[in-house]
């Protein structure tokens, strides 16, 4: 138990869980960063790996996997009693109803949590910035998603995704190493593909984190929009030696370090890249919101933690604005936030701030209310209709809410006194 919970009669600190397709962030409300970042899968005794976000799982299989997963969260990592605390779930925008209902059933029926609040993860990343408006670019493991939020309201039609993320970058690194990678064995140089074949994902992730970065936009791209730069573009990075577990050293060329990331900007074969995704999302927003949104771009996610990512993305956006596809778009000056928090945990941090605010107590579904009403009590953030919610009032009378949790938070008197003013934020 944390030392700050030893006070008299205070409510236990809430648990914050941000479930991603590859990693899950867990910790307590009021903290600046999660206690643990764990894989979003279970490893069984036969070494079979089961991802809890796998859409192929049946309800029974999903329930079993979630019970194991949530048990590990509380009793292996957080070391706390689930019956004493409320839970904030930072959920995926496209999360299935089956997953939400099964997760709620596991939390309430198996672990008897006090209350649960489910809220979309991406808009939460604006809370640490203290602003209700922003264009959020989330570079995740399997895909990249973009959403626009204006004055705390989600512009749903602006939500777009493309299957380009960290995994695509890792596969590009593997392909380039297989084609031209070499390993120093004694005084000889041998092909990496002959010694290792395909490298483990953990090794590729380490190579990416230690050696790779985003270089300048290739000067030889004549078409500013859709020319495929591939991996044959010029580079200025020097070669690096990466130590392998067997004692040999893999030579990571400057081309791999600087140009393997081009896969994120070349597109997915249908003229969709991370840069086109941002501008397409802006086009789907009301015209009077576009200039303000373009001046408040927030890039988050583990895939964006490469050095030079924002600078390269800004170059791509500037070049694309000259293309006829985006001729109707006049976004003004493009500006990017420079958050003081880790990009891969921005959504979790926003959830931790929201979970520490008592003003939003009626956003939680209580254990007693769920046991009485069932899964119908779970809020649906995408519905504009007022939804029945338990307000924890002494009279037991539920209230109806129709706005988003982010808008409720930003309109509370607490947010103006606890968050930094927008004028103090760093934009570039």
Bin the helical content.
25-40%
Low-confidence stretches: 3-9, 222-231, 384-402
What portion of the residues fall into strands of 2 or more residues? 15-25%
Structural class: alpha+beta
Number of helices: 15
Largest sheet: 6 strands, mixed
| Distance between the amino and carboxyl termini | 41 Å
Question: How would you describe what is shown here?
Answer:
With 428 residues, this protein is an alpha+beta fold. The chain is 32% helix and 19% strand. The protein has 15 helices and 18 strands. The chain has helices at residues 59-78, 97-110, 121-124, 166-180, 192-196, 201-211, 254-259, 263-266, 274-283, 290-294, 309-320, 346-355, 367-373, 405-410, 413-418; strands spanning 15-19, 23-28, 36-39, 41-43, 49-51, 87-91, 115-120, 134-139, 144-150, 153-162, 182-185, 188-191, 240-243, 249-252, 297-300, 365-366, 387-389, 399-401. Strand 8 (134-139) and strand 9 (144-150) form a beta hairpin. The longest helix has 20 residues, at 59-78.
How would the blueprint of this fold be written?
Blueprint: E1 15-19, E2 23-28, E3 36-39, E4 41-43, E5 49-51, H1 59-78, E6 87-91, H2 97-110, E7 115-120, H3 121-124, E8 134-139, E9 144-150, E10 153-162, H4 166-180, E11 182-185, E12 188-191, H5 192-196, H6 201-211, E13 240-243, E14 249-252, H7 254-259, H8 263-266, H9 274-283, H10 290-294, E15 297-300, H11 309-320, H12 346-355, E16 365-366, H13 367-373, E17 387-389, E18 399-401, H14 405-410, H15 413-418
Parallel strand pairs: 1-6, 6-7, 8-15
Antiparallel strand pairs: 1-2, 2-3, 4-5, 7-16, 8-9, 9-10, 11-12, 11-14, 13-14, 17-18
Helix pairs in contact: 1-2, 4-6, 9-11
């Amino acid at each position: 138990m944390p030392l700050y919970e030893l006070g008299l009669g205070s409510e236990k600190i809430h648990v914050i869980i941000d479930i991603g397709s590859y990693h899950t962030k867990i910790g307590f409300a009021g903290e600046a960063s999660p206690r643990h970042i764990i894989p979003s899968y279970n490893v069984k005794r036969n070494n079979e790996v089961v991802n809890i976000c796998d859409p192929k799982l049946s309800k029974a299989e999903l329930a079993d996997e979630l019970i194991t997963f949530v048990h590990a969260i509380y009793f292996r990592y957080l070391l706390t009693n689930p019956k004493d605390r409320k839970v904030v779930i930072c959920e995926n925008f496209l999360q299935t109803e089956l997953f939400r209902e099964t997760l709620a059933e596991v939390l309430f029926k198996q672990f008897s949590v006090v209350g649960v609040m489910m809220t979309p993860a991406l808009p939460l990343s604006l809370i640490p910035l203290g602003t209700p408006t922003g264009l959020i670019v989330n570079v995740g493991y399997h895909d990249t998603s973009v959403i626009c939020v204006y004055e705390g309201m989600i512009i749903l039609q602006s939500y777009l995704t493309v299957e380009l993320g960290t995994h695509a970058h890792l596969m590009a690194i593997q392909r380039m190493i297989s084609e031209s990678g070499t390993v120093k064995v004694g005084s000889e140089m041998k092909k990496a593909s002959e010694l290792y074949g395909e490298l483990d994902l953990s090794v590729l992730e380490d190579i990416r984190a230690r050696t790779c970065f985003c270089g300048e936009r290739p000067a030889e791209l004549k078409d500013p929009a859709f020319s495929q730069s591939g991996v044959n573009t010029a580079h200025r990075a020097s070669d690096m030696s990466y130590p392998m577990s067997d004692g040999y050293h893999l030579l990571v060329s400057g081309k791999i370090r600087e140009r393997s990331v081009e896969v994120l900007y070349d597109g997915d074969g249908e003229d969709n890249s991370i840069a086109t995704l941002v501008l397409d999302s802006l086009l789907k927003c009301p015209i009077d919101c576009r200039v303000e949104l373009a001046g408040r771009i927030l890039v988050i996610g583990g895939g964006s933690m490469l050095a030079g990512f924002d600078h390269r993305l800004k170059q791509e956006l500037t070049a694309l604005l000259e293309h006829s596809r985006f001729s109707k778009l006049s976004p003004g000056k493009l500006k990017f936030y420079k958050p003081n928090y880790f990009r891969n945990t921005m959504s979790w941090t926003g959830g931790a701030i929201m979970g520490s605010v008592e003003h939003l107590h009626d956003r939680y579904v209580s254990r007693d209310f769920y046991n009485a009403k069932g899964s119908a009590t779970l809020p649906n953030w995408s519905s504009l209709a007022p939804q029945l919610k338990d307000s924890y009032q002494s009279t037991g009378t539920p209230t109806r809410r129709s706005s988003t949790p982010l808008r409720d938070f930003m309109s509370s008197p607490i947010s103006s006194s606890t968050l930094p003013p927008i004028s103090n934020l760093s934009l570039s």
